[in-house]
């Protein structure tokens, strides 16, 4: 695990900075992936993300079901949109 301290100036404006890790030479280099980090404006809700569903699918014609949505940044009042 790697931890970093962010200063208040790093969080002073809304945006979505990209986070990546870089190992020094020799060899090393940037991480093979990066993640975005959301800094929301004061009073704004964060952007939710869906990580996985349970169940992930059903057969056509099955009776109704209870669908569990797992993710992050859900706030009170969040809703599910089915087929847009």
Secondary-structure map with pairings?
Blueprint: E1 18-19, E2 22-23, E3 29-30, E4 35-36, E5 49-54, E6 68-72
Antiparallel strand pairs: 1-4, 2-3, 5-6
How big a fraction of the residues is strand? 15-25%
Structurally, how many domains make up the residues? 1
Low-confidence stretches: none
Order of helices and strands: EEEEEE
Helix content: under 10%
Mean pLDDT: 91
Span of the ends, CA to CA = 38 Å
Q: What gross morphology would you assign?
A: flat
Strand order of the largest sheet: 1-4
Largest sheet descriptor: 2 strands, antiparallel
Radius of gyration: 19 Å
User: What's the helix count?
Assistant: 0
By secondary-structure content and strand pairing, the structural class works out as: mainly beta
Overall number of strands:
6
Description of the structure:
- This protein has 84 residues and is an all-beta fold.
- It has one domain.
- 0% of the residues lie in helices and 23% in strands.
- It is built from no helices and six strands.
- It has strands at 18-19, 22-23, 29-30, 35-36, 49-54, 68-72.
- The strands form three sheets. Strands 1-4 form a two-stranded antiparallel sheet. A two-stranded antiparallel ribbon has the order 2-3.
- Strand 2 and strand 3 form a beta hairpin.
- The chain is flat.
- The mean pLDDT is 91.
